[in-house]
Amino acid sequence: MKRTDLALALLFAVCLGGCEMLGGTPYQTCAEQCRTQLDPDACIAKCGTCAGQCVNPAPEGFDGPALLWVGRTVDEPQCPPDAPSTVYAGYETPDFPFACDPCRCSEPACALSDGLKTAASSRCEGAALPLNDARDILSGACVAPSEALASDRKSLVLGSTELSPCEASVEPPPVPRIVSRWYRSGKACAGVVQEDTCIAPKTCVPAEETRSFAQCILHIGEGEATCPPDYPVNVVLYDGMSDERRCTPCACGPPTGGTCSLALLSFRDEACSELLTAGVALGKAPGCLAPVPGVRPKSMRAVWEVNIHGRCEPRGGEVDGQLILTGPSTFCCQTRPGENK
């Protein structure tokens, strides 16, 4: 919302030519106020008495007085007829809800940590030789083993099983969120200040014609202001805000609650129907498929006997940072705006 320097705004709103400042408040003589009226004499006669309120001029460091309204933004009224110029507009209470979308995790999957290897001995002992052509076997297909995969002299070793990590993502909300806005705001209104209608040093300003406005002065600039006895109620309004709230990144914890067991089978025939040998990899224990002397397997396949995925606990999606109100202006008021009088 736009902020206006109250002293300059007051001066601009009411001065039509020769106009002076009295304690930060602009005023006009009765002759100046009535020179455009159809009956100047009647206007001057009426002007000689204060139709508003006699107040002390604003002390040093303050501007005004002006009529201040503070309340729900949706209830903002028009400025009173005797103070028709809006000289300040700001905010009091933000209504900017902020929520992070929930984090979610994909399901983990059973996998082999080391794949399929050929051992150097018939008892799964010795240095393991990694294989590059085991992909089809591990996918569950029935395949004919090559010389590197099977023989009647070397064993095959299944690496230990494991659960693959989960992928983190953000779950969008089912319905759009409400557009943010300011819940409470304020506006200051000013009008013509009459000269010589109050006992000096008081000046005549527009009165609080409605229960929602209060007579206030404004401290412009940084730092706290101490309100004078004539205006004891402190009201702070803001020009805007800086939203520094963010959502922490989504992440996934390690997989839990899953169990994986993979069986490696060899067969006498080429259709994976006559079982020859079997080995099982379960958890951290690798499986061993020992050879049968004199018999070379003609087909092989791998089967997940137990494939319980478990789950990963999502992390993140927490609000970090805060909403910072900017451009504070301190009003000192005779009564609190918006309260019944």
Protein topology:
Blueprint: H1 6-14, E1 20-22, E2 25-27, H2 30-34, H3 40-47, E3 53-55, E4 62-72, E5 85-95, E6 103-105, E7 110-112, E8 116-119, E9 128-130, H4 135-138, E10 156-158, E11 161-163, E12 168-170, E13 181-190, E14 203-205, E15 213-219, E16 233-243, E17 246-247, E18 251-252, E19 259-267, E20 275-282, E21 287-289, E22 299-308, E23 314-315, E24 319-320, E25 323-333
Antiparallel strand pairs: 1-2, 3-14, 4-13, 4-15, 5-13, 6-12, 7-11, 8-9, 8-10, 10-21, 15-25, 16-25, 17-24, 18-23, 19-20, 19-22
Detailed description of the structure:
It contains four helices and 25 strands. The chain has helices at 6-14, 30-34, 40-47, 135-138; strands spanning 20-22, 25-27, 53-55, 62-72, 85-95, 103-105, 110-112, 116-119, 128-130, 156-158, 161-163, 168-170, 181-190, 203-205, 213-219, 233-243, 246-247, 251-252, 259-267, 275-282, 287-289, 299-308, 314-315, 319-320, 323-333. Mean pLDDT is 78; it is low at 1-5 and 7-26. The relative contact order is 0.24. By secondary structure, it is mainly β. The protein folds into two domains: 6-98 and 177-247 and 321-333, no CATH class; 114-158 and 259-308. It is rod-shaped and about 130 Å long.
